[in-house]
Amino acid sequence: xxxxKTRRSxxxxxxxxxxxxxxxxxxxxxxFTPRFFLISFHDQxxxxxxxxxxxxxKQRVHELPDARHWIDIRGYNSQGLFEKLVAxxxxxxxxxxxxxxxxxxxxVEQDQGRLFIITRMLRWSAEQHILEDxxxxxxxxxxxxxxxxxDYDDCLNPLRDRIRSGLGVIRQRPSIYITYAILDVVLDFxxxxxxxxxxxxxxxxxTILEQPSKQTLGQVLSLKNELxxxxxxxxxxxxxxxxLLRMDEHIIPASLQIYFRDAYDHTIxxxxxxxSHKEMTSSLVELYMSTVSxxxxxxxxxxxxxxxxxxxxxxxxxxYGMNFSREDPETGEVFRYSMPxxxxxxxYPILLFIMTVLVVLQLYFFYRKGWFKSF
Length: 375
Known about the structure:
By secondary structure, this protein is an alpha+beta fold. It has helices spanning 6-9, 54-63, 79-88, 93-101, 157-165, 175-188, 190-210, 214-245, 254-319, 347-368, and strands at 35-42, 45-51, 68-74, 107-111, 114-125, 130-140, 144-149.
């Protein structure tokens, strides 16, 4: 996918100008120049081409009335183009407004036997550790599928390869099957995204165990927000697939409902995976707090050992640091209760030996208590 201002796009729905008339078509200022792709096929025919203008593409579609067409338009920087699409494909202006706003929740609408579907294509940015999502708008007709997206790159190349190769039954199926295939490929790419998120969570867990920091905690909380946003995308995807399953048979034939049911099951699996990953992020926060607490306990234990060692040494040094005189300097009288050790020839090394023995005894005591095993 092309580079996008992903952080800003999350609030795009809040950036709308108030007071515009319903169905007002406003092209985003940062939109890409439109590119026009057409895949036409039936049982014995296949053609794929990129056209320079919309008029050329439209003419080719009219020249092949018996074929099924996948009209793929990428880039929104042409208001006149979308006005033509509204007229040519009989699209309601409100629906086209949803296309151009480019940040709608996944949904499906039925209008005179045709469908308007919004889904969101996802990828995981390994550099910024955020979700990048692009809206894909789909319009269905009797012999065509029209897809509109703001980026040039997407996740639909596996489907294009299947159509090119002619493998499977996709060329024999009606156009609504192409719609299913598009939605199915989009959902399939959600699973690798969750897999990359899972790998990132393992990296965060290892970092927390080895070198926890406030930055790591911030990354965990940011990931939790990304998972919440992912769930807000997948949940309406599930509702959308469920609504497609309830469509009349003239829209979704009974023979194709099993395919849409399979896609619906994928959304259930995705929601379960997202919920489990959300719980894992909460566990990472708890792991961070526990690791930091253990490190703090170890620090306090070291300080306690150091304090415990120096308290008796300070006591001994303090006692023998009291400079009381042993005899009266005027009369020469020797005081009975003075410190005779002060005048012993080996008093200093003896005192150092005693203090060393105290330190060794304390360290042995702490070792027997198991204080050094947790370091």
